[in-house]
Amino acid sequence: MAFTQTTSPQSGLVLAKTADMNREKPPITDLAPRILENLTHCVLMFDSDLRLDYINPAGEMLLSVSAKRLVGQTADALLPTGSHLLAAIKKGLNTGHPFTEHEVGITLSGRREVTVDCTITPLASHPEDSGLLVEIQQLDRQLRISREAQQITQQQTIRTLVRGLAHEIKNPLGGLRGAAQLLERELPSEALKEYTHIIIGEADRLRNLVNRMLGPNTLPRTEAINIHQVLEHVRQLVNVENHGGITFVTDYDPSIPEIQADRDQLIQAVLNVVRNAVQAIGSPPTDIGKITLRTRARRQFTIGNLRHKLVCETEIIDNGPGIPEHMLKSIFYPMVTGRAEGTGLGLSIAQSLINQHGGLIQCDSRPGHTRFSLMLPLGNTHPRSTTAPSGGNTHEPH
Ligand SMILES: Nc1ncnc2c1ncn2[C@@H]1O[C@H](COP(=O)(O)OP(=O)(O)OP(=O)(O)O)[C@@H](O)[C@H]1O
Ligand SMILES: [Mg+2]
Questions:
Q1: Pocket lining: 295 vs ligand 1, CB cutoff 6 Å
Q2: Enclosing H/E stretch for 142
Q3: For 46-70, how does the pLDDT look when each residue is reduced to its tens digit (9 = 90+)?
Q4: Helices 190-214 and 139-186: angle between axes, nearest 10 degrees
Q5: Closest by alpha carbon to 265, among 386, 387, 150?
Q6: What is the 169 CA–ligand 1 centroid distance (Å)?
Q7: What pLDDT band is residue 354 in, cutting at 50, 70 and 90?
Q8: Of 102, 287, 292, 339, whose Cβ has the fewest other Cβ atoms within 10 Å?
């Protein structure tokens, strides 16, 4: 009977738990590197001469340099002269007291400004074995993550609203068009048919607009694809459209693994962003108009509220006039346009397509430098399904 008891669902759970607890835990020396590698905070360890002994992957990402090239360098070489962080590190070594500095601004390579909280802990067990532990928490990153999560929700809400509206317009539109066609057949004179032609023509124009407002209506058909093939396809397409009048600069990281994605949807998303860049540069494009396509792999990157081990970043940078400050926050919303002939749907559709792949498009802009950055998770993340109502035209290139 004892045997029967142990196989009951509840006692089975207890046994499983006990087995789990009895499982041998890896020694702390094995766990420590794993913990450090996966921390979102940067950890740097200096020796008593302020030479770097160790930096974790979050630190490498912050400084945008690999540990191999950083280890052995002095704090003076790593951090800008006169920077607050460098002064804090020296103060830690001199006083031997641990302390935290809040909201310290640091300028990194490429004149990138970040705000951090920084904790300095002198490690002085023996005078000859002293060192310094520096922990850096990037505040802008936390702010960015919560702001992005909020933006994703807002954009999804607005897209749902616009799709609902588009759906409501689409239904009676078919009826109107059909009635105009029937009427046309009954009309006695050719001159009167001009009016029904106008009704049919305008109904068709509205239907195309409404289809685009509805956005993608199919689930992504995922396959393993090389992001560079997508970029090259778009580059060729845009080159043909502009008779080679645009200068493209490509800076690809060939080591980026293949992405599980819908090829057509990615092409459409990239095309929408690149076409905007072409339009911003001017028509016809000038000799100085330049678009840069760059790919990089990013480690430990958070999109929305999901942290990914590896993310593919595709940057599309143009040297056009830039996006006006007042528009920058709203360009991903549908119907927001700065062009007389624009419908303001291109970026909303691109964002929606990239969101379906678990990714995100970000943008920053100043005159002469507008950067759209498409973040796509790599590895075992799956695209989310779409709830788009039927009727849209997914693959119609925008
Ligand atoms: N690279 C860029 N440089 C300057 N402004 C840009 C750039 N990309 C987008 N914009 C601005 O963002 C607006 C919204 O772009 P979006 O692609 O959503 O719509 P659109 O291009 O106006 O119309 P549509 O793409 O539907 O034909 C553009 O009208 C333009 O004002
Ligand atoms: Mg556009």
A1: no
A2: helix 139-186
A3: 998 999 999 999 898 888 888 888 8
A4: 160
A5: 386
A6: 24
A7: very high
A8: 287
